Amino acid sequence: MQKALFIRFIKNQCTPEELDEVIKWFEGAAGTIDGRAFLKQIWNDTDDPEETNQIDFERILDKVHHSLNITRSGKIYSDTAKYPLRKNHKKTFMRFLTKVAAILFIPLLSFTIYTSIRDSSTLPRLSEYHPVYTEITSPYGSTIFLELPDGSKVWLNHGSRLKFPQTFSGPTRKVELSGEGYFQVAHNPQKPFLVEANEIQILATGTEFNVMAYPDDQVIATTLKSGKIILQKETNDGKIHRIFEMNPKQHSIYYKKEKTLTYLDENPDKYISWMNGKLIFRNDPLDFVIKKLSRWYNVDILIKDPELSRFTYTATFVDETLPQILDLLKIATPINYTISSRIKQKDGTFSKRKVIISLKK
Question: How many domains does the chain have?
Answer without folding.
Answer: 3
